[in-house]
Write a structure and sequence with these properties.
The strands form five sheets. The chain has a five-stranded antiparallel sheet with strand order 4-5-6-7-8. It has a three-stranded antiparallel sheet with strand order 3-2-9, covered by helices on one side. A two-stranded antiparallel sheet has the order 1-12. Helix 6 packs across helix 7, helix 9 runs antiparallel to helix 10 and helix 13 packs antiparallel against helix 14. About 50% of the residues lie in helices and about 10% in strands. The chain is flat. With about 575 residues, the protein is α+β, with helices and mostly antiparallel strands.
Length: about 575
Protein backbone atom coordinates (compact mmCIF):
# COMPACT_ATOMS: atom_id res chain seq x y z
CA UNK A 1 0.00 0.00 0.00
CA UNK A 2 2.94 2.32 0.64
CA UNK A 3 4.06 2.20 -3.01
CA UNK A 4 0.50 2.85 -4.21
CA UNK A 5 0.13 5.83 -1.87
CA UNK A 6 3.48 7.19 -2.97
CA UNK A 7 2.40 7.01 -6.63
CA UNK A 8 -0.86 8.71 -5.71
CA UNK A 9 0.98 11.50 -3.88
CA UNK A 10 3.25 12.09 -6.86
CA UNK A 11 0.18 12.43 -9.05
CA UNK A 12 -1.55 14.80 -6.60
CA UNK A 13 1.46 17.05 -6.05
CA UNK A 14 2.05 17.33 -9.78
CA UNK A 15 -1.65 17.83 -10.62
CA UNK A 16 -2.13 20.72 -8.23
CA UNK A 17 0.84 22.55 -9.77
CA UNK A 18 -0.74 22.22 -13.21
CA UNK A 19 -4.13 23.34 -11.92
CA UNK A 20 -2.51 26.37 -10.27
CA UNK A 21 -0.94 27.41 -13.56
CA UNK A 22 -4.23 27.02 -15.44
CA UNK A 23 -6.05 29.10 -12.86
CA UNK A 24 -3.59 31.99 -12.68
CA UNK A 25 -5.39 34.39 -15.06
CA UNK A 26 -8.72 33.77 -13.31
CA UNK A 27 -6.98 34.21 -9.97
CA UNK A 28 -5.82 37.70 -10.98
CA UNK A 29 -9.27 38.60 -12.34
CA UNK A 30 -10.90 37.44 -9.09
CA UNK A 31 -8.61 39.72 -7.12
CA UNK A 32 -9.74 42.73 -9.15
CA UNK A 33 -13.41 41.83 -8.73
CA UNK A 34 -12.99 41.11 -5.02
CA UNK A 35 -11.27 44.45 -4.36
CA UNK A 36 -14.36 46.33 -5.55
CA UNK A 37 -17.20 43.96 -4.62
CA UNK A 38 -16.46 41.22 -2.09
CA UNK A 39 -12.99 41.37 -0.54
CA UNK A 40 -13.72 38.99 2.33
CA UNK A 41 -14.47 36.02 0.05
CA UNK A 42 -11.11 35.95 -1.69
CA UNK A 43 -7.69 34.52 -0.82
CA UNK A 44 -4.58 35.59 -2.70
CA UNK A 45 -2.45 32.99 -0.91
CA UNK A 46 -3.31 30.32 1.65
CA UNK A 47 -0.60 31.24 4.15
CA UNK A 48 -0.45 29.53 7.56
CA UNK A 49 -0.19 31.70 10.68
CA UNK A 50 -0.90 34.91 8.78
CA UNK A 51 -1.58 37.69 11.25
CA UNK A 52 -3.05 40.25 8.84
CA UNK A 53 -6.31 38.48 7.95
CA UNK A 54 -8.42 40.93 9.91
CA UNK A 55 -6.74 44.02 8.49
CA UNK A 56 -8.86 46.45 6.43
CA UNK A 57 -9.01 45.16 2.86
CA UNK A 58 -11.86 47.14 1.28
CA UNK A 59 -9.77 50.23 0.57
CA UNK A 60 -11.09 50.43 -3.01
CA UNK A 61 -14.76 50.70 -2.02
CA UNK A 62 -16.07 54.23 -1.46
CA UNK A 63 -19.58 53.78 -2.85
CA UNK A 64 -20.93 50.28 -1.92
CA UNK A 65 -23.59 50.24 -4.65
CA UNK A 66 -21.92 47.33 -6.43
CA UNK A 67 -21.60 45.30 -3.23
CA UNK A 68 -25.23 45.98 -2.33
CA UNK A 69 -26.40 45.06 -5.84
CA UNK A 70 -24.51 41.76 -5.67
CA UNK A 71 -26.17 41.01 -2.31
CA UNK A 72 -29.61 41.74 -3.80
CA UNK A 73 -28.89 39.46 -6.77
CA UNK A 74 -27.67 36.65 -4.50
CA UNK A 75 -30.70 37.05 -2.23
CA UNK A 76 -32.98 36.99 -5.28
CA UNK A 77 -31.38 33.76 -6.47
CA UNK A 78 -31.79 32.29 -3.01
CA UNK A 79 -35.46 33.23 -2.57
CA UNK A 80 -36.39 32.56 -6.18
CA UNK A 81 -34.69 29.16 -6.60
CA UNK A 82 -34.12 27.54 -3.19
CA UNK A 83 -36.29 29.41 -0.73
CA UNK A 84 -36.23 27.87 2.77
CA UNK A 85 -39.79 29.03 3.30
CA UNK A 86 -41.51 27.04 0.53
CA UNK A 87 -41.02 23.76 -1.36
CA UNK A 88 -38.71 24.20 -4.34
CA UNK A 89 -38.39 20.65 -5.65
CA UNK A 90 -40.35 17.42 -5.87
CA UNK A 91 -39.53 13.89 -6.95
CA UNK A 92 -41.02 11.86 -9.78
CA UNK A 93 -40.19 8.93 -12.09
CA UNK A 94 -40.11 8.75 -15.91
CA UNK A 95 -43.20 6.52 -16.20
CA UNK A 96 -46.04 8.96 -15.53
CA UNK A 97 -48.69 6.22 -15.41
CA UNK A 98 -46.91 4.52 -12.50
CA UNK A 99 -46.00 7.87 -10.93
CA UNK A 100 -49.72 8.72 -10.90
CA UNK A 101 -50.68 5.74 -8.77
CA UNK A 102 -51.48 6.61 -5.19
CA UNK A 103 -48.78 4.56 -3.34
CA UNK A 104 -46.02 5.87 -5.61
CA UNK A 105 -47.16 9.50 -5.39
CA UNK A 106 -47.40 9.33 -1.61
CA UNK A 107 -43.96 7.70 -1.31
CA UNK A 108 -42.36 10.33 -3.52
CA UNK A 109 -44.03 13.07 -1.51
CA UNK A 110 -42.88 11.57 1.81
CA UNK A 111 -39.27 11.24 0.60
CA UNK A 112 -39.34 14.84 -0.58
CA UNK A 113 -40.59 16.07 2.80
CA UNK A 114 -37.90 14.11 4.66
CA UNK A 115 -35.21 15.60 2.45
CA UNK A 116 -36.61 19.07 3.10
CA UNK A 117 -36.41 18.45 6.85
CA UNK A 118 -32.76 17.45 6.53
CA UNK A 119 -32.02 20.58 4.51
CA UNK A 120 -33.75 22.79 7.07
CA UNK A 121 -31.99 21.10 10.01
CA UNK A 122 -28.48 21.53 8.59
CA UNK A 123 -26.43 24.50 7.41
CA UNK A 124 -27.46 23.88 3.80
CA UNK A 125 -29.43 27.09 3.30
CA UNK A 126 -26.82 29.37 4.87
CA UNK A 127 -24.13 27.69 2.75
CA UNK A 128 -26.37 28.00 -0.32
CA UNK A 129 -26.71 31.74 0.26
CA UNK A 130 -22.92 32.04 0.34
CA UNK A 131 -22.66 29.93 -2.80
CA UNK A 132 -25.07 32.22 -4.68
CA UNK A 133 -23.09 35.29 -3.62
CA UNK A 134 -19.85 33.70 -4.84
CA UNK A 135 -21.59 32.74 -8.08
CA UNK A 136 -22.83 36.31 -8.69
CA UNK A 137 -19.45 37.91 -7.96
CA UNK A 138 -16.88 35.37 -9.18
CA UNK A 139 -18.91 33.27 -11.65
CA UNK A 140 -17.83 29.96 -10.06
CA UNK A 141 -19.02 28.64 -6.69
CA UNK A 142 -18.13 25.13 -5.44
CA UNK A 143 -19.77 23.75 -2.30
CA UNK A 144 -18.81 20.55 -0.46
CA UNK A 145 -21.50 18.36 1.14
CA UNK A 146 -20.05 16.15 3.86
CA UNK A 147 -21.77 13.58 6.03
CA UNK A 148 -22.30 14.78 9.57
CA UNK A 149 -23.05 12.80 12.71
CA UNK A 150 -25.30 15.50 14.18
CA UNK A 151 -27.09 17.14 11.23
CA UNK A 152 -26.82 14.39 8.58
CA UNK A 153 -25.01 16.79 6.22
CA UNK A 154 -22.53 19.63 6.65
CA UNK A 155 -21.75 22.05 3.83
CA UNK A 156 -18.47 23.93 3.24
CA UNK A 157 -17.93 26.91 0.89
CA UNK A 158 -14.32 27.23 -0.34
CA UNK A 159 -13.22 30.82 -0.99
CA UNK A 160 -12.17 32.06 -4.40
CA UNK A 161 -8.41 31.54 -4.54
CA UNK A 162 -8.61 28.44 -2.33
CA UNK A 163 -9.83 25.95 -4.93
CA UNK A 164 -8.91 24.61 -8.36
CA UNK A 165 -11.31 22.89 -10.76
CA UNK A 166 -11.12 21.01 -14.07
CA UNK A 167 -13.63 19.90 -16.70
CA UNK A 168 -14.64 16.41 -17.67
CA UNK A 169 -14.99 15.42 -21.36
CA UNK A 170 -18.66 16.43 -21.02
CA UNK A 171 -17.53 19.94 -19.92
CA UNK A 172 -18.87 19.43 -16.41
CA UNK A 173 -16.73 19.85 -13.31
CA UNK A 174 -15.35 16.50 -12.16
CA UNK A 175 -12.16 17.62 -10.38
CA UNK A 176 -11.89 19.84 -7.30
CA UNK A 177 -8.61 20.58 -5.50
CA UNK A 178 -8.16 22.85 -2.52
CA UNK A 179 -5.39 24.27 -0.37
CA UNK A 180 -6.29 25.72 3.01
CA UNK A 181 -5.06 25.91 6.57
CA UNK A 182 -6.10 24.13 9.74
CA UNK A 183 -4.82 24.38 13.28
CA UNK A 184 -2.98 21.52 14.94
CA UNK A 185 -6.01 20.84 17.15
CA UNK A 186 -8.32 20.73 14.11
CA UNK A 187 -5.98 18.40 12.19
CA UNK A 188 -5.75 15.84 14.98
CA UNK A 189 -9.49 15.99 15.72
CA UNK A 190 -10.35 15.56 12.03
CA UNK A 191 -7.81 12.97 10.89
CA UNK A 192 -6.44 11.32 14.03
CA UNK A 193 -3.04 11.50 15.66
CA UNK A 194 -1.74 8.48 13.74
CA UNK A 195 -2.30 10.10 10.34
CA UNK A 196 -0.76 13.53 10.91
CA UNK A 197 2.96 14.23 10.63
CA UNK A 198 5.31 13.69 13.55
CA UNK A 199 5.73 17.45 14.02
CA UNK A 200 1.99 17.99 14.26
CA UNK A 201 1.61 15.07 16.69
CA UNK A 202 4.38 16.48 18.87
CA UNK A 203 2.84 19.96 18.99
CA UNK A 204 -0.52 18.40 19.84
CA UNK A 205 0.90 16.40 22.73
CA UNK A 206 2.76 19.44 24.06
CA UNK A 207 -0.49 21.42 24.08
CA UNK A 208 -0.55 25.12 24.85
CA UNK A 209 -0.01 27.65 22.08
CA UNK A 210 1.03 24.91 19.66
CA UNK A 211 -2.59 23.75 19.34
CA UNK A 212 -3.44 26.94 17.48
CA UNK A 213 -0.50 26.78 15.08
CA UNK A 214 -1.75 26.51 11.49
CA UNK A 215 -0.66 23.87 8.98
CA UNK A 216 -1.30 23.88 5.22
CA UNK A 217 -3.61 21.09 4.09
CA UNK A 218 -4.36 19.93 0.54
CA UNK A 219 -7.60 18.32 -0.54
CA UNK A 220 -8.47 16.56 -3.81
CA UNK A 221 -11.74 15.13 -5.14
CA UNK A 222 -11.54 13.50 -8.56
CA UNK A 223 -12.74 10.46 -10.53
CA UNK A 224 -11.42 7.17 -9.17
CA UNK A 225 -9.45 6.26 -12.29
CA UNK A 226 -6.82 3.59 -11.60
CA UNK A 227 -4.89 4.75 -14.67
CA UNK A 228 -4.36 8.13 -12.99
CA UNK A 229 -2.68 7.97 -9.63
CA UNK A 230 -2.74 4.18 -9.38
CA UNK A 231 -5.26 1.73 -8.04
CA UNK A 232 -5.66 2.71 -4.41
CA UNK A 233 -9.42 2.17 -4.05
CA UNK A 234 -11.90 -0.42 -5.41
CA UNK A 235 -13.03 0.40 -8.93
CA UNK A 236 -16.73 0.12 -8.01
CA UNK A 237 -16.49 3.60 -6.48
CA UNK A 238 -16.60 6.32 -9.15
CA UNK A 239 -15.08 9.04 -6.91
CA UNK A 240 -12.16 9.33 -4.51
CA UNK A 241 -11.14 11.93 -1.97
CA UNK A 242 -7.64 12.53 -0.61
CA UNK A 243 -6.37 14.83 2.14
CA UNK A 244 -2.66 15.29 2.62
CA UNK A 245 -0.49 17.58 4.68
CA UNK A 246 1.72 20.13 2.99
CA UNK A 247 5.41 19.30 3.26
CA UNK A 248 4.84 15.80 4.65
CA UNK A 249 6.51 12.70 3.22
CA UNK A 250 5.07 11.21 0.05
CA UNK A 251 4.14 7.80 1.44
CA UNK A 252 1.49 9.22 3.77
CA UNK A 253 -1.91 10.85 3.44
CA UNK A 254 -4.27 12.23 6.03
CA UNK A 255 -7.33 10.51 4.58
CA UNK A 256 -8.21 8.44 1.53
CA UNK A 257 -11.82 7.41 1.01
CA UNK A 258 -14.20 6.56 -1.85
CA UNK A 259 -17.59 7.98 -2.82
CA UNK A 260 -20.55 6.51 -4.66
CA UNK A 261 -21.71 9.97 -5.75
CA UNK A 262 -20.13 13.34 -6.43
CA UNK A 263 -19.64 14.98 -3.00
CA UNK A 264 -19.69 18.57 -4.25
CA UNK A 265 -21.56 20.91 -6.55
CA UNK A 266 -20.00 23.64 -8.67
CA UNK A 267 -22.43 25.86 -10.59
CA UNK A 268 -21.08 28.49 -12.99
CA UNK A 269 -22.89 31.61 -14.16
CA UNK A 270 -21.77 31.73 -17.78
CA UNK A 271 -19.23 29.76 -19.82
CA UNK A 272 -17.06 30.30 -22.83
CA UNK A 273 -15.71 27.35 -24.80
CA UNK A 274 -13.80 24.80 -22.75
CA UNK A 275 -13.24 27.11 -19.77
CA UNK A 276 -13.63 25.44 -16.40
CA UNK A 277 -14.21 28.74 -14.61
CA UNK A 278 -17.27 30.87 -15.28
CA UNK A 279 -17.95 34.53 -15.88
CA UNK A 280 -20.25 36.56 -13.65
CA UNK A 281 -22.33 39.74 -13.40
CA UNK A 282 -19.62 41.03 -11.06
CA UNK A 283 -17.07 40.79 -13.87
CA UNK A 284 -19.45 42.46 -16.32
CA UNK A 285 -20.25 45.31 -13.93
CA UNK A 286 -16.65 45.86 -12.78
CA UNK A 287 -16.03 48.77 -15.18
CA UNK A 288 -19.13 50.60 -13.96
CA UNK A 289 -18.20 49.94 -10.34
CA UNK A 290 -14.72 51.40 -10.90
CA UNK A 291 -16.23 54.41 -12.67
CA UNK A 292 -18.56 54.97 -9.72
CA UNK A 293 -15.66 54.95 -7.24
CA UNK A 294 -13.74 57.47 -9.40
CA UNK A 295 -16.74 59.80 -9.73
CA UNK A 296 -17.35 59.68 -6.00
CA UNK A 297 -13.71 60.64 -5.41
CA UNK A 298 -13.97 63.52 -7.86
CA UNK A 299 -17.22 64.71 -6.28
CA UNK A 300 -15.64 64.61 -2.83
CA UNK A 301 -12.63 66.58 -4.13
CA UNK A 302 -14.92 69.21 -5.68
CA UNK A 303 -16.89 69.62 -2.46
CA UNK A 304 -13.65 69.75 -0.48
CA UNK A 305 -12.33 72.58 -2.69
CA UNK A 306 -15.54 74.53 -2.10
CA UNK A 307 -15.50 74.02 1.67
CA UNK A 308 -11.74 74.19 2.12
CA UNK A 309 -10.30 75.89 -1.01
CA UNK A 310 -6.60 76.39 -1.74
CA UNK A 311 -5.56 79.89 -0.51
CA UNK A 312 -3.16 82.67 -1.45
CA UNK A 313 -1.71 85.41 0.80
CA UNK A 314 0.43 88.54 0.49
CA UNK A 315 4.13 87.94 0.82
CA UNK A 316 4.18 90.17 3.87
CA UNK A 317 2.21 87.51 5.74
CA UNK A 318 4.87 84.86 5.28
CA UNK A 319 5.76 83.25 8.60
CA UNK A 320 2.89 85.16 10.26
CA UNK A 321 0.13 83.31 12.16
CA UNK A 322 -3.11 82.79 10.26
CA UNK A 323 -6.27 81.62 12.00
CA UNK A 324 -8.58 79.80 9.57
CA UNK A 325 -11.17 78.65 12.12
CA UNK A 326 -14.64 80.28 12.16
CA UNK A 327 -14.43 83.57 14.09
CA UNK A 328 -10.63 83.68 13.97
CA UNK A 329 -8.78 86.94 13.25
CA UNK A 330 -5.64 87.18 11.12
CA UNK A 331 -3.67 90.42 11.40
CA UNK A 332 -2.00 91.94 8.35
CA UNK A 333 0.51 94.77 8.19
CA UNK A 334 -1.18 96.88 5.52
CA UNK A 335 -4.86 96.41 4.62
CA UNK A 336 -4.55 98.97 1.83
CA UNK A 337 -1.88 97.02 -0.05
CA UNK A 338 -2.98 95.23 -3.16
CA UNK A 339 -3.89 91.62 -2.68
CA UNK A 340 -3.40 91.92 1.07
CA UNK A 341 -4.90 89.33 3.37
CA UNK A 342 -5.88 85.77 2.44
CA UNK A 343 -8.09 84.79 -0.49
CA UNK A 344 -8.84 81.68 -2.57
CA UNK A 345 -6.39 80.97 -5.36
CA UNK A 346 -9.32 80.40 -7.69
CA UNK A 347 -13.06 80.16 -7.25
CA UNK A 348 -14.44 76.65 -7.61
CA UNK A 349 -18.03 76.20 -8.79
CA UNK A 350 -18.44 72.47 -9.40
CA UNK A 351 -21.51 71.28 -11.31
CA UNK A 352 -22.65 69.05 -8.47
CA UNK A 353 -26.12 68.47 -9.90
CA UNK A 354 -24.74 67.12 -13.16
CA UNK A 355 -22.26 64.98 -11.23
CA UNK A 356 -25.01 63.55 -9.05
CA UNK A 357 -27.15 62.77 -12.10
CA UNK A 358 -24.30 60.90 -13.77
CA UNK A 359 -23.56 59.01 -10.55
CA UNK A 360 -27.22 58.01 -10.38
CA UNK A 361 -27.08 56.78 -13.99
CA UNK A 362 -24.05 54.63 -13.19
CA UNK A 363 -25.77 53.25 -10.08
CA UNK A 364 -28.83 52.27 -12.11
CA UNK A 365 -26.65 50.61 -14.73
CA UNK A 366 -24.89 48.60 -12.03
CA UNK A 367 -28.28 47.56 -10.67
CA UNK A 368 -29.36 46.37 -14.11
CA UNK A 369 -26.16 44.35 -14.48
CA UNK A 370 -27.15 42.52 -11.29
CA UNK A 371 -30.87 42.25 -12.26
CA UNK A 372 -32.00 44.20 -9.19
CA UNK A 373 -35.12 45.42 -11.03
CA UNK A 374 -36.16 41.80 -11.60
CA UNK A 375 -35.50 40.70 -8.03
CA UNK A 376 -37.35 43.67 -6.57
CA UNK A 377 -40.29 43.02 -8.89
CA UNK A 378 -40.46 39.39 -7.76
CA UNK A 379 -40.19 40.42 -4.11
CA UNK A 380 -42.64 43.34 -4.15
CA UNK A 381 -45.19 42.69 -6.88
CA UNK A 382 -45.96 38.99 -6.53
CA UNK A 383 -48.01 39.27 -3.36
CA UNK A 384 -51.24 39.75 -5.33
CA UNK A 385 -50.05 38.21 -8.61
CA UNK A 386 -50.04 34.73 -10.03
CA UNK A 387 -46.92 33.22 -11.53
CA UNK A 388 -48.49 33.66 -14.97
CA UNK A 389 -48.92 37.40 -14.42
CA UNK A 390 -45.29 37.70 -13.31
CA UNK A 391 -44.13 35.94 -16.46
CA UNK A 392 -46.37 38.13 -18.64
CA UNK A 393 -44.98 41.37 -17.17
CA UNK A 394 -41.30 40.41 -16.96
CA UNK A 395 -40.99 37.51 -19.36
CA UNK A 396 -38.04 39.02 -21.21
CA UNK A 397 -36.00 39.23 -18.00
CA UNK A 398 -36.75 35.60 -17.12
CA UNK A 399 -35.64 34.63 -20.60
CA UNK A 400 -32.30 36.34 -19.90
CA UNK A 401 -31.92 34.37 -16.66
CA UNK A 402 -33.20 31.13 -18.18
CA UNK A 403 -29.77 29.69 -19.12
CA UNK A 404 -28.38 30.66 -15.71
CA UNK A 405 -31.23 28.96 -13.86
CA UNK A 406 -30.98 25.83 -15.98
CA UNK A 407 -27.20 25.61 -15.52
CA UNK A 408 -27.61 26.13 -11.78
CA UNK A 409 -30.10 23.25 -11.66
CA UNK A 410 -27.80 20.94 -13.62
CA UNK A 411 -24.51 21.86 -11.95
CA UNK A 412 -25.69 22.98 -8.52
CA UNK A 413 -28.99 21.53 -7.39
CA UNK A 414 -28.89 18.11 -9.06
CA UNK A 415 -25.57 17.09 -7.42
CA UNK A 416 -26.79 18.50 -4.09
CA UNK A 417 -29.98 16.45 -4.04
CA UNK A 418 -28.30 13.30 -5.37
CA UNK A 419 -25.73 13.52 -2.60
CA UNK A 420 -28.28 14.21 0.15
CA UNK A 421 -30.60 11.42 -0.99
CA UNK A 422 -27.68 8.94 -1.07
CA UNK A 423 -26.56 9.91 2.44
CA UNK A 424 -30.09 9.57 3.81
CA UNK A 425 -30.60 6.24 2.04
CA UNK A 426 -27.40 4.80 3.54
CA UNK A 427 -28.57 5.92 6.98
CA UNK A 428 -31.97 4.28 6.61
CA UNK A 429 -33.82 7.58 6.54
CA UNK A 430 -35.69 6.79 3.31
CA UNK A 431 -38.88 4.69 3.70
CA UNK A 432 -39.15 1.43 1.72
CA UNK A 433 -40.22 2.10 -1.84
CA UNK A 434 -43.45 0.56 -3.19
CA UNK A 435 -42.94 -2.40 -5.56
CA UNK A 436 -44.28 -0.43 -8.52
CA UNK A 437 -41.33 1.97 -8.45
CA UNK A 438 -38.56 -0.62 -8.58
CA UNK A 439 -36.39 -0.33 -11.68
CA UNK A 440 -37.23 3.33 -12.33
CA UNK A 441 -34.74 6.13 -11.63
CA UNK A 442 -35.85 9.06 -9.52
CA UNK A 443 -36.08 12.43 -11.23
CA UNK A 444 -36.16 15.89 -9.70
CA UNK A 445 -38.66 18.51 -10.81
CA UNK A 446 -38.04 22.04 -9.59
CA UNK A 447 -41.07 24.01 -8.45
CA UNK A 448 -39.44 27.16 -7.11
CA UNK A 449 -40.89 30.60 -7.74
CA UNK A 450 -38.62 31.21 -10.74
CA UNK A 451 -39.21 27.72 -12.11
CA UNK A 452 -42.96 28.23 -11.87
CA UNK A 453 -42.67 31.66 -13.44
CA UNK A 454 -40.85 30.10 -16.37
CA UNK A 455 -43.55 27.42 -16.69
CA UNK A 456 -46.32 30.00 -16.33
CA UNK A 457 -46.39 30.40 -20.09
CA UNK A 458 -47.51 26.76 -20.35
CA UNK A 459 -50.16 27.08 -17.65
CA UNK A 460 -51.36 30.32 -19.22
CA UNK A 461 -51.74 28.61 -22.57
CA UNK A 462 -53.81 25.89 -20.91
CA UNK A 463 -56.03 28.50 -19.27
CA UNK A 464 -56.54 30.29 -22.58
CA UNK A 465 -57.48 27.08 -24.42
CA UNK A 466 -59.94 26.02 -21.71
CA UNK A 467 -61.48 29.52 -21.67
CA UNK A 468 -61.77 29.49 -25.46
CA UNK A 469 -63.54 26.12 -25.41
CA UNK A 470 -65.83 27.44 -22.67
CA UNK A 471 -66.91 30.29 -24.93
CA UNK A 472 -67.65 27.83 -27.74
CA UNK A 473 -69.99 25.74 -25.57
CA UNK A 474 -72.82 28.22 -26.06
CA UNK A 475 -72.72 27.63 -29.81
CA UNK A 476 -71.81 23.92 -29.77
CA UNK A 477 -71.92 21.93 -26.52
CA UNK A 478 -69.94 19.12 -28.16
CA UNK A 479 -66.82 21.33 -28.12
CA UNK A 480 -66.10 20.09 -24.59
CA UNK A 481 -65.35 16.67 -26.07
CA UNK A 482 -62.01 18.03 -27.30
CA UNK A 483 -60.74 18.61 -23.75
CA UNK A 484 -59.46 15.77 -21.55
CA UNK A 485 -60.53 17.23 -18.22
CA UNK A 486 -58.71 14.68 -16.05
CA UNK A 487 -55.42 15.07 -17.92
CA UNK A 488 -55.75 18.86 -17.86
CA UNK A 489 -56.13 18.87 -14.07
CA UNK A 490 -53.13 16.56 -13.61
CA UNK A 491 -50.92 18.58 -15.95
CA UNK A 492 -51.89 21.90 -14.42
CA UNK A 493 -51.33 20.69 -10.86
CA UNK A 494 -47.99 19.19 -11.88
CA UNK A 495 -46.82 22.46 -13.44
CA UNK A 496 -47.85 24.44 -10.38
CA UNK A 497 -46.17 22.04 -7.96
CA UNK A 498 -49.35 21.08 -6.10
CA UNK A 499 -48.99 18.41 -3.42
CA UNK A 500 -49.96 14.94 -4.70
CA UNK A 501 -52.19 14.49 -1.66
CA UNK A 502 -54.60 17.05 -3.13
CA UNK A 503 -55.03 15.48 -6.59
CA UNK A 504 -56.40 11.94 -6.55
CA UNK A 505 -54.74 9.23 -8.60
CA UNK A 506 -56.44 8.19 -11.83
CA UNK A 507 -57.31 4.76 -10.44
CA UNK A 508 -58.95 6.28 -7.36
CA UNK A 509 -60.91 8.70 -9.55
CA UNK A 510 -62.19 5.81 -11.69
CA UNK A 511 -63.27 3.90 -8.58
CA UNK A 512 -65.16 6.93 -7.26
CA UNK A 513 -66.91 7.42 -10.58
CA UNK A 514 -67.80 3.71 -10.82
CA UNK A 515 -69.27 3.80 -7.32
CA UNK A 516 -71.18 6.98 -8.14
CA UNK A 517 -72.53 5.43 -11.36
CA UNK A 518 -73.58 2.30 -9.51
CA UNK A 519 -75.33 4.37 -6.86
CA UNK A 520 -77.12 6.36 -9.56
CA UNK A 521 -78.26 3.15 -11.27
CA UNK A 522 -79.56 1.77 -7.98
CA UNK A 523 -81.36 5.01 -7.31
CA UNK A 524 -82.94 4.95 -10.77
CA UNK A 525 -84.05 1.33 -10.24
CA UNK A 526 -85.59 2.24 -6.90
CA UNK A 527 -87.34 5.21 -8.46
CA UNK A 528 -88.76 2.99 -11.20
CA UNK A 529 -89.89 0.44 -8.61
CA UNK A 530 -91.53 3.13 -6.49
CA UNK A 531 -93.22 4.52 -9.58
CA UNK A 532 -94.60 1.04 -10.34
CA UNK A 533 -95.86 0.57 -6.78
CA UNK A 534 -97.50 3.97 -6.77
CA UNK A 535 -99.12 3.24 -10.17
CA UNK A 536 -100.48 -0.10 -8.93
CA UNK A 537 -101.83 1.57 -5.81
CA UNK A 538 -103.56 4.18 -7.92
CA UNK A 539 -105.07 1.54 -10.18
CA UNK A 540 -106.25 -0.50 -7.22
CA UNK A 541 -108.06 2.53 -5.86
CA UNK A 542 -109.73 3.46 -9.14
CA UNK A 543 -113.29 1.87 -9.35
CA UNK A 544 -114.57 0.68 -12.71
CA UNK A 545 -117.57 -1.44 -13.79
CA UNK A 546 -119.63 -3.21 -11.16
CA UNK A 547 -117.58 -2.85 -7.99
CA UNK A 548 -114.19 -3.67 -9.58
CA UNK A 549 -111.04 -1.57 -9.93
CA UNK A 550 -108.80 -0.61 -12.77
CA UNK A 551 -106.17 -2.99 -11.48
CA UNK A 552 -108.70 -5.89 -11.56
CA UNK A 553 -109.50 -5.00 -15.09
CA UNK A 554 -105.83 -5.04 -16.08
CA UNK A 555 -105.38 -8.41 -14.40
CA UNK A 556 -108.55 -9.89 -16.01
CA UNK A 557 -110.39 -10.46 -12.77
CA UNK A 558 -113.81 -9.23 -14.04
CA UNK A 559 -116.42 -7.14 -12.22
CA UNK A 560 -116.00 -8.77 -8.86
CA UNK A 561 -119.40 -8.70 -6.88
CA UNK A 562 -121.31 -11.93 -5.76
CA UNK A 563 -124.66 -10.72 -7.25
CA UNK A 564 -123.30 -9.84 -10.62
CA UNK A 565 -124.36 -11.14 -14.01
CA UNK A 566 -121.58 -13.62 -14.19
CA UNK A 567 -123.07 -15.67 -11.42
Amino acid sequence: MGAAVQKLRQHLDSRIIGLRQNRYSWWVAWRDVADYLLPRRYLWLSTPNELSRGAPINQHIIDPTGTKASQVCAAGMMSGITSPGRPWFKLTIPDMDIADTSPVKLWLDEVCKRMQRVLAGSNYYSAKATQYHDLVVFGTAPMLINEDAEDVIRCVNPCAGEYYIANSPRLTIDTLYREFTQSVAQLVAEFGEDNVSDDVARMFNQGGAGLGREIKVFHAIEPNDSRVGGKVLPSRFPWREVYWQGGSRQDKVLRLRPYHEQPFSCPRWDLSGNDAYGRSPGMDALGCVKQLQLEQRRKAQAIDKVVNPPLKAHVSMKNQPAIMMPGGVTYVTDMSAANSGIAPVYEVKPQLQEMLEDIQDVRELIGKMFFTDLWQMLANETKDMTAFEVAQRKEEKLIVLGPVIERNENEGLDPDLDRIFAIMNRRGMIPPAPPEIHGFPLQVQYVSMLAQAQRAASTGAMEQVVAFVGRLLAADPSAIDNIDIDESIDEYADMMGVSPKIIRATKAVMQIRAARQQAQQQQQAMQQTMAGVQGAQTLSQTPVGQGGTALDAMLGLGGGGQGGPGQ
